[in-house]
Amino acid sequence: MWQRWLSWLVTAFSENIHPGFCYNQTIMAFEFFKKKNEDNLPGKLSAGKEELFCYGFDASSSEGKPSAVVRPLNTQEVSDVAAYAFKNNVPIVPRGAGTGMTGGAVPLKDAVVLSLEGMNRIIDIDEKNMVAVVEPGVINFHLQERLEDVGLFYPPDPASMKFCTLGGNVAENAGGPRAVKYGVTKDYVLGLETVLPDGRVLMTGGRTYKGVVGYDLTRLLVGSEGTLGIITKIFLKVLPLPEETVTMLCTYDSLDAAAQSVSRITSSSVIPRALEFMDNESIRAVENYGSFGLPVDAEALLLIEVDGPRASVMEEAEKIASVCTASGGEVSIAEDMFSKQRIWDARRAISPALYRIRPTKINEDIVVPRGRIPEMLKELREIAEKNNLIIANFGHAGDGNIHVNIMTDKNNEEEYRSATKSVRDIFEATLKLGGTISGEHGIGLTKKQYVGMELSDVSIEIMKKIKNVFDPKGILNPGKMFPPDKY
Amino acid sequence: MWQRWLSWLVTAFSENIHPGFCYNQTIMAFEFFKKKNEDNLPGKLSAGKEELFCYGFDASSSEGKPSAVVRPLNTQEVSDVAAYAFKNNVPIVPRGAGTGMTGGAVPLKDAVVLSLEGMNRIIDIDEKNMVAVVEPGVINFHLQERLEDVGLFYPPDPASMKFCTLGGNVAENAGGPRAVKYGVTKDYVLGLETVLPDGRVLMTGGRTYKGVVGYDLTRLLVGSEGTLGIITKIFLKVLPLPEETVTMLCTYDSLDAAAQSVSRITSSSVIPRALEFMDNESIRAVENYGSFGLPVDAEALLLIEVDGPRASVMEEAEKIASVCTASGGEVSIAEDMFSKQRIWDARRAISPALYRIRPTKINEDIVVPRGRIPEMLKELREIAEKNNLIIANFGHAGDGNIHVNIMTDKNNEEEYRSATKSVRDIFEATLKLGGTISGEHGIGLTKKQYVGMELSDVSIEIMKKIKNVFDPKGILNPGKMFPPDKY
Questions:
Q1: Cα angle, residue A79 at apex, residues A77 and A80 outer, rounded to 5°
Q2: Tally of CB atoms within 10 A around A304
Q3: A305 with A378, same domain?
Q4: How far apart are CA A65 and CA A55, in angstroms?
Q5: Is residue B263 domain-shared with residue B229, that is, in the same domain?
């Protein structure tokens, strides 16, 4: 044990640790852990070259390098690390699986990454109270599977659901295709156990479905991107598993027709469980990537899913199908589990598939009011044409949430400059239509320079003061969420 | 015009205004309004005896007396009043219809009541985006009616829905019977325009269904009981009106059987739209009050409503009916609109009807995890027996939210002391079962002494600091929500 610990320390000393501050902090952190929990030490703190490299990324293009990686296994250990960090002014970045799209878990300012992947127990599936209690490191899909076994259902399903953690989902207020009917993560978080930056433990909410005692701190923590506290336990509302789902594809030979369908479906009497959109760029990229059998000539397609009681679900699907047909779409219903799965695999493959078009992806997730999808898609097409850029659009059209992907090449300086410039145009168009610059990915690092386009000075001032209430030393996930000059 | 204004001022001077501070403040307020908006003055500020009396109450037993009542008609006027109050350290209490159960709108410390009843426009029913935009003074039921006309649906339905305002609903995070399926007010608020205590206007959210830019200030403001800001515009999510509803009554000859039914229904695959409970005391009180045809011999009764597509709703109702029957209940389905209405009229009459039992009602609205209703009802029965008190229980059993009414007489000193003492016993039992002391009524004045039983010191400390971020002078609805010694 000691040998391993020493060898790590030597590695840390010799090449991996940022000079100055970090080295000393890391030594101190090692000492701290050594005292706290000598036997388990090596699993809990590391500064190996590979690890510092790996924990410097997430799914955005941002990059950092932590001074060390700490892996606590329970709330007490998180609290110990936080209290230590607070006392010694060590910046901490909480991290789940690192699947975030905006750099929220990327360490800046020589921060220590506090990885919650080891806290991955499903503590309780409480069928009687329709509540699941989990640790933050539980993979979203693992909970889904466990729940389905007993006829229960946790709706939020981000595209990364097979890898991402529920703690990360809570920190980012993750959405997913089912949000159009079932809402996003915040709609399921009944309570949280959170370690504050000074190590104190804050409990909010619990196993009840209602509660109005004091301010809603639970909801304030959801979506706070790890800047207010470190989430160590999550109480989630769960639902009965819907009896039946019907999955269908609808193809269009015009983008406008697809957009009009979306608008008509969202204002119809049926709420689909998913209403996903793909434009021709996305369809072709996916087919090029995996041959899923999508119609590459279609200008757009909608992936629509309806769920509910067996007695009514087919009728509802038919209602939606007739709306689609009336807008000029061609509908096909997935006949079996295999076809359903293939459609969803295609949908989930879009993000990686797009890299076949160009090596660099600038990925935004704007939202407009649901009826304004047609206008927004028109704006996006104009921005692409004006700047001679490839922009592939797909996403959760049912909530007005479009994933806008500018496909470019970082090494092509002129094109890249034009691409980054057009981000501002896209956001301007979004805000002009009454939208928001992020529906589910958050701000993190990649969007913080644009926050002032959407939020007023008053709003940013209040948020900064709230940050200060929770984190007076500014050591929890510093440098995120707020515009650079305002932080 | 001038004469009216002068006569009011004279009235204010001669008898109605609290001496000292208030008199001067009121004079200053008059002067301020005179300058701002001379023509509209008399409708906007008053200090008449009757008004000061009326605006000193809500639906709780709390009582206060404002120094004046201000009735702004738009955001600018609210902002002007707030800026004036901020500069002059005048406490302000925002108020909707005054139907609150915990004294949230009762003025303390010679506050000026800022009544939003004049801001009662439905600004927009935006069918395309499934959003309604309203001013805070709109009556809940008026919005419901307007929406139903166009096939839309706003679920939150507090018992006072025919009188209460949406601004008040937002401030209290109001619930209602439909919450068991559709959630509470916070689940429908997409955005808010809020005037801060210093007069600045804060805009949060808007017409989009998703949004993760910055901290969720919208949700922080919902349920903040008028202590953080004055809500001047509300963006609400609306749904398609369900095709069909089925309403049924289920009677039981034992309380336990009814409680077991609730527990089995909530963990079944059907989510009813309402799952209301009444005990024998409540049934008898209602029948004594209005002869609605409820079975007075029943030990308990469930009012259950199911909604959804025509094709499946009867099947779902039958599933629930069979769960009820299996627990020993006797089910009857309302055959027509008239019968449905009569059942709901009976349900909504409980609160006033209870006064027939005893003249004083101590009214709590505890919540326990949904499966623990049987245990909680047992605890309540024991507390009633031990203290020789009449406790009538009814409420939203489907969310575990029970309205506990200790019926007593304020003039019977000994009994009243025992009644108030038992409140603490009830809360202790609730918290022991993992519950919360308020599901939808809020804290206001009547519960603030008990807040420390539920919230930790850390939690209260953070909430107080957040209050201070929004209201550094502590002039917005002072003296509410926090335990007396901690405020």
A1: 65
A2: 31
A3: no
A4: 7
A5: no
pLDDT averaged per 10 residues in sequence order, chain B, 487 residues: 39 38 46 50 70 89 90 94 92 96 91 95 96 98 98 96 96 97 97 98 96 97 98 97 96 94 88 96 94 94 95 93 96 93 92 91 94 94 96 95 96 95 97 97 96 97 98 96 71
Tokens representing residue A469 in the block:
């209430």
- Classified as helix, coil or strand, A370 is helix
Number of domains in chain B: 4
Among B188, B210, B240, give the residue marking a domain's end.
Answer: B240
CA distance A343 to chain B (A): 25
DSSP conformation letters of A265-299: HHTSS---SEEEEEEHHHHHHHHHHH-----TT-S
- For residues A38 and A90, membership in a common domain is answered with yes
pLDDT bracket for residue A233 (50, 70, 90):
very high
Q: Is residue B475 assigned to a domain?
A: no
The C-alpha atoms of residue B416 and residue B422 are separated, in whole angstroms, by: 10
- Name the DSSP class of A194: E
Mutant choice from A210, A365, A368 vs B, greatest count of B C-beta within 10 A: A210
Tokens of residue A113, six digits: 């990454």
Closest Cβ–Cβ partner in A267, A459, A481 for B204: A459
Query: Is 0.80 surpassed by the pTM of this model?
Result: yes
Residue B429 · residue B364 · CB < 8 Å: no
Domain, as residue range, for A386 = 358-432
Here the ipTM equals 0.92
* Residue that the structure tokens 């500064």 belong to: A47
Residues A231 and A302 occupy one common structural domain: no
Cβ-defined contact of B213 to A440 (cutoff 8 Å): no
3-state DSSP assignment of residue B233: strand
CB contact under 8 A, B219 and A186: yes
Q: Burial, A76: exposed, middle or buried (Cβ in 10 Å; 0-12, 13-18, 19+)?
A: middle
Q: What dihedral do alpha carbons A12, A18, A22, A27 form, nearest 10°?
A: 10
Smallest CA-to-CA distance from A228 within B334, B410, B465 is with: B465
Residues in a beta bridge with B246: B306
Write out chain A residues lying below 8 Å of B239, CB-based.
271
Q: Residue B487: is it exposed, middle or buried by C-beta count within 10 angstroms (0-12/13-18/19+)? A: middle
Closest Cα in chain A, distance from residue B51 (Å): 30
